[in-house]
UniProtKB/TrEMBL annotation:
Gene3D superfamilies per record: alpha/beta hydrolase
Domain of life: Bacteria
Protein name per the record: AB hydrolase-1 domain-containing protein
Pfam families tied to this protein: Abhydrolase_6
Domain AB hydrolase-1 span(s) in chain numbering: 70-287
InterPro entries registered for this protein in UniProt: AB_hydrolase_1, AB_hydrolase_fold
Length: 308
């Protein structure tokens, strides 16, 4: 577990402390971990193997993925998972927002949810969480699906473009700006990062409704504290990499830099798609993931095993 935390991370945990319950849902649940709880949602056929674990890309929360999960139900069981401190996943202290603490919390949740095997879906900076979990080998990961995930240099360049004046990355100031400006940041992000063909208003409305209901979005600590911990060690885990080509935030990112995570990965570029392949083109996303799982089953066994 990450030892200690910065005062700024502690401030973010305090600013985003959860005072309200998450929206009532028959399909969502909380998994208790050492430093708080992780909110999940299960979907798909019982007994499916492997299970696809999708890490929510903040400010997305489990409520954003209804269409995605319905599309995926035809090919796999899925678990949506909000990161510690984001959405309605709670943290007890600032150190739970650190990168390695996030990795360990997701691992702990997976260990409680079953024996796997898991295929991890990591979008954007969450892809580094997925890769680190695969590298550590504490839980059985048989495949990775990454979306909008460059190498470390590309990720840091992305942060520079998104925060050119380093306001959000200034400890203390960034935490206050992130908290007080969450509505403005959320509106800007969905408008800027989605493709012109995507109606981003439903995504924005869902995020704003949930933020108003008490959801967390400690973006400043993620931007400030995760960078030094990111790695790009080469993995031999079977990997599918997706790139939405109309993502303005990654307009200058080298797509091939994803191969530094998994040199043998297959890269698929999706036209008329922005930062969120899973949300902007759920049917296409499910098809690509389903085909990947079929290829994966050729070496690891059946994709779906249903009880008789």
């Amino acid at each position: 577990m990450t030892r200690g935390s910065s005062p700024a991370a502690a401030l973010d945990a305090w600013l985003w402390r959860h005072n309200r319950r998450p929206p009532a849902s028959a399909t969502s649940a909380q998994v208790t971990v050492t430093e708080g709880s992780i909110r999940i949602r299960r979907s798909g056929p019982a007994g499916a193997s492997p299970t696809l674990v999708l890490l929510c890309d903040p400010p997305n929360m489990v409520e954003h993925y209804d269409q995605t999960l319905r599309a995926l139900d035809a090919c796999t069981a899925s678990i949506m998972m909000e990161l510690p401190g984001f959405g309605f996943s709670s943290v007890r202290r600032g150190r739970a927002l650190e990168f390695m603490a996030t990795v360990e919390a997701v691992e702990a949740a997976l260990q409680q949810l079953g024996n796997g095997p898991w295929v991890l879906y990591g979008p954007c900076i969450c892809g580094f969480v997925a890769c680190e979990i695969a590298r550590r080998g504490r839980v059985p990961v048989t495949g990775l699906v990454l979306a909008q995930v460059p190498d470390v240099a590309g990720m840091r360049a992305w942060c520079d473009r998104m925060d050119p004046q380093h306001r959000l990355r200034r400890p203390g100031l960034g935490q206050w700006l992130g908290r007080l400006g969450a509505t403005r940041l959320t509106r800007f992000w969905y408008r800027f990062s989605t493709a012109a063909e995507t109606d981003h208003e439903p995504l924005t409305a869902t995020a704003l409704r949930l933020l108003d209901a008490g959801a967390g979005y400690p973006l400043a600590t993620m931007l400030q504290r995760w960078g030094p911990a990111l790695t790009e060690e080469s993995l031999d885990t079977p990997t599918l990499v997706l790139w939405g080509n109309n993502d303005r935030s990654h307009a200058t990112t080298d797509r091939s830099s994803s191969l530094r995570h998994a040199p043998a990965a297959e890269i698929v570029e999706m036209e008329q798609c922005g930062h969120f392949p899973d949300l902007e083109q759920p049917e296409r996303f499910a098809q690509l993931v389903g085909d990947f799982l079929i290829r994966l089953s050729d070496t690891t066994g059946p994709v779906i095993e249903t009880p008789s």
